[in-house]
Amino acid sequence: MESSFKTQPLLLLLLLLFTFSSITESNQFCDAGIEYGESSCGVSSSSSKILIKGGTVVNAHREEVADVYVEDGIIVAVKPNIKVGDDVTVLDATGKFVMPGGIDPHTHLSFEFMGTETVDDFFYGQAAALAGGTTMHIDFVIPVSGSLTAGFEAYEKKAKKSCMDYGFHMAITKWDEVVSKEMEIMVKEKGINSFKFFLAYKGALMINDELLLEGFKKCKSLGALAMVHAENGDAVYEGQKRMIELGIFGPEGHALSRPSLLEGEATARAIRLAGFVNTPLYVVHVMSIDAMEEIATARRKGQRVIGEPVVSGLTLDGSGVWDPDFVTAAKFVMSPPIRASGHDKALQAALSTGILQLVGTDHCSFNSTQKALGIDDFRNIPNGVNGIEERMHLVWDIMVESGQISVTDYVRITSTECARIFNIYPRKGAILPGSDADIIIFNPNSSFEITAKSHHSRSDTNVFEGRRGKGKVEVTIAGGRIVWENDELKVVPGSGKYVEMPPFAYLFNGIDKGDAEYLSSLRAPVKRFKSTD
Q1: Which residue of 218, 266, 342, 399 has the fewest C-beta atoms within 10 A of its own C-beta?
Q2: What is the spatial distance between Cα 187 and Cα 202, in angstroms, rounded to a whole number?
Q3: What is the 3-state secondary structure (H, E, C) of 85-141?
Q4: Which backbone phi and psi does 185 adopt, to 5 degrees?
Q5: Average pLDDT along the chain
Q6: What is the phi/psi pair of residue 353, to 5°?
Q7: Separation between Cα atoms, residue 386 and residue 403, nearest integer Å
Q8: What dihedral do alpha carbons 219, 509, 438, 35 form, nearest 10°?
C-alpha cells in the first residue's frame, strides 16, 4: 500500500506532462489552421449529409448547373433543385465550379532517400494536399532489400495515419523469380496495377535494359502499367564526374550533369523497348522538350504511351539552381532537373494538345537542413521539390486562366484521366451518382498566393515562393467530410482509405489483337526442303 502511494505523484506528473503535450500539439495544429482529431479546436466533425447548391458541376465530358447531394461519403444525386431536410449541411456554390477532387498520380511521402526521409509523411503531406484541392494521391512503394512484400508492409504502416484516400505504385529495383512472383501477388491480392522502373540513380535504384525487358513482359502478362523514370543513369554518372573535375560542386552542377538529351535518350529507349514487348508505357515527370517529342512521335505511330508532366516543370524555369544563396538554390534540385526557359511553355502546349495527358507533382519534400547534406557536393543534395498542395491552383492559373485549356480539360488532366489510367473511374475522378464524394468548390474569381509560411507542408521552403494567381479552392470534401473550408483544415488521422486499383485498364484494350497481328505478319517459320543429294 505504501509503495503504491509513493508512485502516485510520479503517475500524476506523467499524466500532466502527457496532457500538456497533447494540448500543445493540438494548439500547434489550430495555429496552422489544422484541426487534428474529431473535435479539437472546438470544431465538431461535419455532417454525413451535404448538399452543394447552385454551382456549375464540371466533369471531364460536360459542365452543367446542378445541385450535388452527398450521403455517407457517396454522391447520391446530381440534378437541379434538390430538396433536403434540416439535417443536411448546405453549401452555396453559386457562381463557382463544383469539380472532382484532384488525384495526384506521383508522390513520395515518408520516402527514405539519399540518407534521409522526406519531411511530409502520410498525414502532413495529405493534409497539404487537401488544402490545395487534391483528395487522392498514388504513392510509390520502394522495396526493402529488393523485396516487394516487405516494401508493401512498410508502406502499409506508414499510411496508417492517412487523412485522405491513396493508392500505391510499386518500384522494381532488381529481378529474379521471387520478384516475378511477388509482382503477381501485388496485382492479384494487394490492389497494385503499376510498376515503376528507374533508368537513373546508378548504384541505388537504377536497373539495366535486361531487367527492364523482363519487367515489361511481366507487366504485360499481369495487365499492369509499366512506368519509367527516364534518364540515362550511366551518362548522368559520367556527367557528375565531369562537373566535379571542373570544380563545380554547387546545385548548378546537378542540372549541368544531367542535360535534357539524356532524358530524351532514356525516354526513347524505354518507348522502343515497350513497343518491342507491345505493352503500354507511362513516362513519369516529363521535364523536357526532348522527352516530350519522343512521346509525341510514338503516339503519332499509334503506340500507347502516357506522358506525365509535373507542376514544377510546367511552371518554373531552371534558373533557381544558379541562385547565389545555397538554401534557395538547393530547394530546386530534383531529377530530372527543372529545365531552362522554353521547356515549360513547350510542355504546357503539349498538355493542351493531348501529347501529354495528366499532371502530377513528384512531391518529394526535404527541408533546408536536409538539403544542406550536399552543401559541399551537389551529388549529396536530396532530390525533390514540393507541389502536392500547389498543383490544382497553378494548373488552373497557367492553363485555364491563360486560355490554353477549357474547364472540362482541367478536370480531365487533374483528376479524371488519372482515374481512368489506373482503373478507378468512375469511383474517382467524377461527380456522378455512385462516385465517391471527393469534391472541391472552386472560385475562379478569387486569388491565391504561395509562401512557405502559409503552406501546410512541413518543409521550411517552397519552390513556388511568392507566386500569385487567380482561382482558389474554397472547399474540399473528401470521403463525404468537409475537410477544408474558410482556410481551415479539419482532418482526422486514419480516416483515409487505401484504394485498390484493378489490372487491365483501358490502355490494355486491343493489345491481344496487336500481338495476333504481329504473329500473322512474321510469315515464319519458313518450311524448307532438305536436299536429297
Answers
A1: 342
A2: 27
A3: CCCCEEEECCCCEEEECEEEEEECCCCEECCEECCCCCCHHHHHHHHCCEEEEEEEE
A4: -65, -40
A5: 92
A6: -105, 5
A7: 26
A8: 10
